[in-house]
Every structure is written in structure tokens, then in C-alpha cells.
Amino acid sequence: MSLWVQLTLKDLAKPDSESRAGLVNLERALWMESYDDKGSGSVLYFGSQETLTVTESLEEIVDLLDAEEVSDEDFEEEEEEED
Question: What is d(CA 13, CA 79) in angstroms, rounded to the nearest whole number?
């Protein structure tokens, strides 16, 4: 199962750049770190030359993942009840 989460993609180095929603497969991410000390976003690394910057902080991403795990557990319980 892949961990697809909707995040807000934005070039954080350019304040005037447009942000857009995008689905990101976090299972592919090798690591994540805060964009800056202010927590104004995160950088996701998928390889040596593939990165994404998003407006969500690391804490917000963790919250999204926690919510995804809860919904997956609910789905699994519903499947078991149907059997």
C-alpha cells in the first residue's frame, strides 16, 4: 500500500510562486526536513536530484499520516465485518 497524501506544493524560495495541491507518495520519500527554522514548510527528498517543497510543516505531515492510518484501520474493520 502506498502512502498518498495531498500536500500543497510551492517553491518556498520564491514567495511570489503559486502554490498548488498535489498528491505525494510519502512512501517513496527517503527523508524530510523543515525548510527553515520558522517551520514555514518542508522539503521532501526522493533521491539525490528529486525534491519537493511543500507549505506543510513536518508536524502537519505527521498529523496527515496519523489520520490516514486511522482511516485505513476503519476500512480494514469494515472489510472484516463484511466477511
Answer: 45
